[in-house]
Design goal:
The complex is a heterodimer of chains A (107) and B (111). Chain A has no helices and eleven strands. Chain A has 107 residues and is mostly beta strands. In chain A, the strands form two sheets. In chain A, strands 2, 4, 5, 9, 10 and 11 form a six-stranded mixed sheet that branches. In chain A, strands 1-3-8-7-6 form a five-stranded antiparallel sheet, with no helix packed on it. In chain A, a hairpin with a 4-residue loop joins strand 9 and strand 10 (95-97). Chain A is globular, with a radius of gyration of 13 Å. Chain B is mainly β and 111 residues long. Chain B has no helices and eleven strands. Chain B has strands at 4-7, 10-13, 19-25, 31-37, 44-50, 53-57, 65-68, 75-79, 88-96, 99-102, 106-110. In chain B, strands 2, 4, 5, 6, 9, 10 and 11 form a seven-stranded mixed sheet that branches. In chain B, strand 7 (65-68) and strand 8 (75-79) form a beta hairpin. The chains are: A mainly beta (107), B mainly beta (111).
Chain lengths: 107, 111
């Protein structure tokens, strides 16, 4: 299967700071998504972004499919951004998840 | 609201017992996935349905596991003769337009 590497594994930010999370894939994918898992375990879909750039409020994501990586930008972080961020990619119907980036935003 | 409901939220069982989980996606989710997540790891793919047809199964899905999606609506995941290694969060996801929408999951603890 496809290997998904996420970095950094852990991140601690002061409220208001910006951050960049990265996701690398071992092979080409035609479907790439970013998720936020809150402290209660709920996975929320942030972006469906097989290529290009999308923005949603303080979050934006960029995928460079030819180089097999994606970036998630968080600007002006808030304590509610805390949790684990996962990227998932696949080719066809099976999605492979990384091990996540655990983000803690402190006030 | 992701449009995917899972029941129960928590399940505690003794080793050797059978358990069944249910997933109810909204009708727009023609594709349905089951994943398993253990502490500190990302979700791992178990199986996938296109309407009522089970099209893919992971090697993780041993013969003690069975999943169904009768009539292409709700889905059930049954684990027979549970083992302590089955303890995990079991996640169901519906898919529409290629995007995955997860339920809240069922946390299974096998004692």
């Amino acid at each position: 299967g496809i290997q998904v590497e996420q970095s950094p594994p852990d991140l601690i930010l002061q409220e208001g700071a910006n951050s960049t999370l990265r996701c690398n894939f071992s092979d080409s994918v035609n479907n790439l998504q970013w998720f936020h898992q809150n402290p209660w375990g709920q996975l929320i879909n942030l972006f469906y972004i097989p290529s290009g750039t999308k923005q949603n409020g303080r979050l934006s994501a960029t995928t460079v499919a030819t180089e097999r990586y994606s970036l998630l930008y968080i600007s002006s972080s808030q304590t509610t951004d805390s949790g684990v961020y996962f990227c998932a990619g696949g080719f066809g119907n099976q999605f492979y998840f990384g091990t996540g980036t655990s983000l803690t935003v402190i006030p | 609201d992701t449009g995917v409901s899972q029941d129960p939220r928590h399940k505690i069982t003794k080793r050797g017992q059978n358990v069944t989980f249910r997933c109810d996606p909204i009708s727009e989710h023609n594709r349905l996935y089951w994943y398993r997540q253990t502490l500190g790891q990302g979700p791992e793919f178990l199986t996938y349905f296109q309407n009522e047809a089970q099209l893919e199964k992971s090697r993780l899905l041993s013969d003690r596991f069975s999943a169904e999606r009768p009539k292409g609506s709700f889905s059930t995941l049954e684990i027979q003769r549970t083992e302590q290694g089955d303890s995990a969060m079991y996640l169901c996801a519906g898919s529409f337009g290629g995007k995955l929408f997860f339920g809240s999951g069922t946390q299974l603890s096998v004692l």
